[in-house]
Write a structure and sequence with these properties.
Blueprint lengths: L7 E6 L10 H24 L4 E6 L8 H8 L5 H7 L6 E5 L10 H7 L4 E7 L1 H14 L3 E3 L5 E2 L3 H13 L9
Parallel strand pairs: 1-2, 1-4, 2-3, 4-5, 4-6
Helix pairs in contact: 5-6
Length: 177
């Protein structure tokens, strides 16, 4: 598949997060480590006029309103990450009911409308939501890049294993940003 920028979209998964759950502290620390790379990816997308699509857990709010989800998730721990990676007015924001960014969301329809067949996926948790999203993208025949330094999980060994699976089974490019 052609992987030019003209058919590329950036998908951020679960970036708006409260980290308020068992394992949340570990995920927070690992997300802080990738934060500079996520910012670099967002800047790259903006500089190249790539669509940025946030797909996020809904936190039982169910309105696809990122401001409501930000208000719910923002705390002392999450504040910096949320403020630096808040969607801009020209970004897309979708909510998801489960792990995959594709499951019961309009993501596939949006990508078709935007004529995007290559995805750069980034975010958290790599061993759950990014893995499930990458699997669905692969099944829908999208080509996928998941920069290894733009994905975090609670445990680094689980993150590494998810990257291995995405690269070896789903043919994802995991070259760092």
């Amino acid at each position: 598949m052609d992987q030019s920028l003209s058919n590329t979209a950036v998908v951020f998964v679960d970036i708006i997060n409260d980290f308020d759950f068992d394992g949340g502290n570990d995920l927070y620390q690992n997300t802080k480590e990738i934060l500079p790379h996520l910012l670099k990816l967002k800047k790259f997308a903006k500089d190249n006029n790539l669509p940025i699509i946030y797909v996020n857990d809904h936190y039982e709010l169910w309105q696809a309103d990122f401001n409501k989800i930000i208000d719910y998730c923002k705390n002392e721990k999450s504040k910096e990450i949320i403020e630096l990676l808040t969607p801009d007015d020209d970004d897309y924001f979708l909510i998801k009911p489960q792990h995959s960014a594709f499951f019961q969301t309009p993501l596939q329809s949006l990508l078709t409308e935007l004529e995007r067949t290559h995805l750069i996926m980034a975010g958290i948790a790599g061993d759950i939501c990014i893995l499930f999203s990458a699997q669905d993208a692969y099944m829908y025949k999208f080509s996928v890049r998941i920069p290894e330094n733009c994905m975090a999980s609670e445990l680094k060994e689980n993150n590494d294993y998810a990257l291995y699976l995405m690269h070896s089974v789903m043919d994802a490019d995991i070259t760092p940003v």
